[in-house]
Amino acid sequence: GAVVSQHPSRVICKSGTSVKIECRSLDFQATTMFWYRQFPKQSLMLMATSNEGSKATYEQGVEKDKFLINHASLTLSTLTVTSAHPEDSSFYICSAAPPDFAGHYEQYFGPGTRLTVT
Amino acid sequence: GDSVTQMEGPVTLSEEAFLTINCTYTATGYPSLFWYVQYPGEGLQLLLKATKADDKGSNKGFEATYRKETTSFHLEKGSVQVSDSAVYFCALSDSGAGSYQLTFGKGTKLSVIP
User: Counting Cβ atoms within 10 Å, is residue A11 exposed (0-12), middle (13-18) or buried (19+)?
Assistant: First the structure.
C-alpha cells in the first residue's frame, strides 16, 4: 500500500525559532500534498494544498509567510513554521495524493508531527 | 459549500456490541466518501471508501454504504473489539468542487471496554 512518512515525529523548539517538517511519499509519486493541523480533540483543519513545482494554495486564515510550504519533488514536501510561538503548538499531519484511474484522488496520510513550542 | 456531519461522541461500547456511527453530507458535485480512523497519537488511516451511489465499502469488519437519496454514509460493525477504540472521521472528496480536497467531519471517539 501507499506509505507516507513524516519527520520528525515529535519536535520541541523555543519560541522565535523555526522548525521544518518533512513529508515523503515512499512508494508512489504525489502530484499533490496537503498539510493539516489538528487541535486536541478536534478535526483536521486543512492549512494548504501544494502541487509539485508550483506555489502552495493556502486556506483562508493561514499565514503563508509563517507556514512556508515547499513541494520540490514528487515525493517530498516540507512545512516550515517560522518564528514559532506557543500558539503554534499542535499536531501537524500531511497527506499525499496520487490520482487513481477514475480521477478520484485518495489521500494517504502521514503519521503526524507533534510540535511543542516552549 | 461541502460539509460533513457525523454523530458526536464519545461513544462507549462493550466488547462485541454493535456499532453505528452516523454520517451525512452535503456536496455540490458527485463526491467520493471515506471513513478514516485515527489511533491515539497517530495519523489517519483510510478505513474504507465508496466512490459512487450504492457502493458499499468494507474493511476489517466495518461497512458503510453510499446512500445518495439520504446523503448518508453510516459506519457499522457487527461486533466491536477493544482494539477498535479510536477516533473515526467521515470525509468526502468532491470532484464537482473543482479540487480533490477532503472535507472532514468532526470525528467520533469510540471507546470499547472489555
Answer: middle
B35 close contact with A: CB closer than 8 A: no
- Reduced to 3 states, what is the DSSP secondary structure of residue B45? strand
Record: contact B32-A34, CB cut-off 8 A:
no
Smallest Cα distance from A44 to chain B, Å: 7
CA distance A24 to chain B (A): 14
Specify whether the backbone of A108 is left (phi greater than 0), alpha (psi in -120 to 50) or beta.
Answer: beta
Least CB-CB distance to A109: which of B45, B100, B107? B45
pLDDT tens per residue, chain B (114 residues)?
788 999 888 999 999 999 999 999 998 878 889 999 999 878 888 999 998 999 999 999 999 999 999 999 999 999 999 999 999 999 998 765 555 678 899 999 999 999
pLDDT tens, residue by residue, A27-67: 888 888 999 998 877 788 899 998 888 889 999 999 999 99
Report the C-alpha gap between B33 and B7 in whole angstroms.
16
**Taking Cα atoms as reference points, which of A62, A14, A51, A57 lies closest to residue A29?**
A51
**CB contact at 8 A, B4 and B91:** yes
Smallest CA–CA distance, residue A10 to chain B, in Å, is 11
User: Other CB atoms closer than 10 Å to residue B46's CB: what's the count?
Assistant: 18
CB of B62 within 8 A of CB of B47?
Answer: yes
User: Which one of A46, A97, A109 has the shortest CB-CB distance to B44?
Assistant: A109
Taking the C-alpha atoms of residue A29 and residue A44, their distance in angstroms, rounded to an integer, is: 23
